[in-house]
Amino acid sequence: MALPVFKTGEVEYLGLAGSIPVRLRHTCAKPTAYDRWVDRRRLVPRTDRVLEDPRLQAAVQRLGRDTVKQAVARAQSGVRSGDVDPDDVADVALAALPTSLSTARPVLNATGVVLHTNLGRAPLSPAAVEAVIDSAAYADVEYDLTTGRRARRGRGALAALAAAVPAAESVLVVNNGAAALVLATTALAAGREVVISRGEMVEIGDGFRLPELIASTGARLREVGTTNRTTVADYAAVIGPDTGCILKVHPSNFRLEGFTSAVDVSELARLGVPVVADIGSGLLAPDPLLPDEPDADTALRRGASIVTASGDKLLGGPQAGLVLGQADLVERLRRHPLARALRVDKLTLAALEATLRGPVSPTWRSLRIDPDELRTRSEALADGLRDAGVRAEVVASAGAVGGGGAPGLTLPGWAVALPESYAAPLRLGTPSVAGRVERGRCLLDLRCVPAGSDDAVLAAVLALQPNTPGV
Fold first, then answer.
1. CATH topology of domain 125-355
2. Contact 368, 416 (CB under 8 A)
3. Which of 424, 365, 349, 427 has the alpha carbon at shortest distance from 135?
4. pLDDT of residue 36 exceeding 70
5. What is the H or E stretch that residue 356 is in?
6. What would the CATH number be for the domain defined by 107-115+365-462?
7. Which residue among 5, 45, 276, 420 has its CA within the 20 to 30 Å range from the CA of 257?
């Protein structure tokens, strides 16, 4: 039986010439899989030696030792199978390492939908991102640095929110809009009745329906009116000692037209019971661009006791549930045991405060971008694609607010139209580009793409040429 002894570039082994032991030598550039005398397991470099590579040492600091060792182990397996050269183990392991430990991939939103729920709704502003990074380590989220004692949690974010809505006597922040609504109805009406119009019994997404959400709080729903018409008399007829609150819900993800009527918050406020107004989209003050969208400040001035909204929609901040209203009722919500389970972390508080105090958000800019600017950028992108042989044209594009905000409102703009076959490969590319498929075409609407990323969209399309199936 031959006994291999390996050296760089050559193999020595013992054999027999008849009955006489002899030393044989086989020389080659590098031992390869076809050498039947070579046991490839002996070619695998030791893990500790591979990990001494400075590049892998740096990766350990960024990604952790376990992740790097797993990549090395896979490269070592490649040596055993003959697919990886022993000298290339460190290079192969390094190339296989992830760029991040999170599986969430950044996406360039070329759909034309500003608040795309599947893409995380509002992108944070640079100021908010910086605030999150600053707060990622220890921070004075609940600590008074002057006295060294415990302080109110997130007091900076709460002060910024109160300043943004002058009509609010007090404010509270929980982890999302649905949580804000659940907390309000639980604290005000658990075991009692919540009066609501049948026309506002909405489904809020992913199969979650408002009646079921409210019923989970222990409150009983008392429906009034009809799907298309409800009057103040309908509410007044059922209000009594068992009424916990009136719930006024903005049907933000659909629009009812025709023979309709609804009751304004100001009329409901005169009925003598707390009115909870769920405005949904997070608009804090009136906006001429969105004349039909309710806002928190106006709802409170018209008599709403509590207003609930989302932070990651029109406000352009992180996911959060905003509670604004009368001081005694907000305090009642804050002291409710459920509030502890729904509270937000320091990163959300930091991002929210920076959004409220900082410059205009990416959401604000995307909603107001000049259509002429979009056309200019789209034409430049299309020219670059056509120069490379890609069939592209500039077409009119109707953007949307999305995220359950301003249903039916069209945002005029322009997009680059490609063959539909580009849509899936672009989503899977690097960077990932999400377009919109419409009438057999893949539309790349640059409304929500930062201007500095147009070249990245161009490169992503060109990277699909010419070997991508269907392209």
1. Aspartate Aminotransferase; domain 2 (3.40.640)
2. no
3. 349
4. no
5. helix 346-357
6. 3.90.1150.180
7. 276
- Check if the beta carbon of residue 67 is closer than 8 Å to that of residue 101: yes
Q: Are 93 and 68 in contact (CB under 8 A)?
A: yes
DSSP E strands in 207-302: the ranges are 208-209, 220-224, 243-249, 275-280
Alpha helices in 97-201 (DSSP H): 126-135, 155-164, 177-189
Which range, of 84-98, 127-141, 204-218, 297-311, averages the lowest pLDDT? 204-218
Its sign, for the CA torsion 301, 263, 336, 178, is: negative
The domains spanning 107-115+365-462 and 125-355 adopt the same CATH topology: no
Q: Cis omega (within 30 of 0) on the bond before 466?
A: yes
Pairing of strands 4-7, 10-17: antiparallel
Do residues 392 and 384 lie in contact, with contact meaning Cβ atoms separated by under 8 Å?
A: no
Q: Which residue spans within 96-240 are E strands per DSSP?
A: 107-109, 113-115, 143-144, 149-150, 170-174, 193-197, 203-205, 208-209, 220-224
The predicted model gives 400-416 an average pLDDT of 88
d(C-alpha 211, C-alpha 208), whole Å: 9
- Residue 95's Cβ-count burial label (10 Å; 0-12, 13-18, 19+) is exposed
Helix axes 454-462, 371-387, angle to 10 degrees: 30
β-bridge partners, 443: 417, 436
Cβ neighbours of residue 171 under 8 Å, at least 6 residues apart? 158, 161, 162, 165, 322, 323, 324, 330
Q: Which long-range contacts (CB under 8 A, 24 or more apart) does 449-452 make?
A: 449/108, 449/109, 449/110, 450/362, 451/377
- Could you tell me if 97 and 59 are in contact, meaning their C-beta atoms sit under 8 angstroms apart? yes
Q: Looking at this protein, which amino acid is placed at residue 356?
A: L
Per residue in 409-426, pLDDT (tens digit) is: 899 999 999 999 999 999
Burial (CB count within 10 angstroms: exposed 0-12, middle 13-18, buried 19+), residue 440: exposed
Domain boundaries, the chain: 4-96, 107-115+365-462, 125-355
Task: Give the C-alpha separation, 357 to 325, whole Å.
Answer: 20
Euclidean distance between CA atoms 75 and 440, whole angstroms? 43
Q: In the 8-state DSSP scheme, what is residue 226? A: -
In eight-state DSSP terms, residue 229 is B
Mean pLDDT over the full length of the chain: 89
End-to-end CA distance of the chain: 56
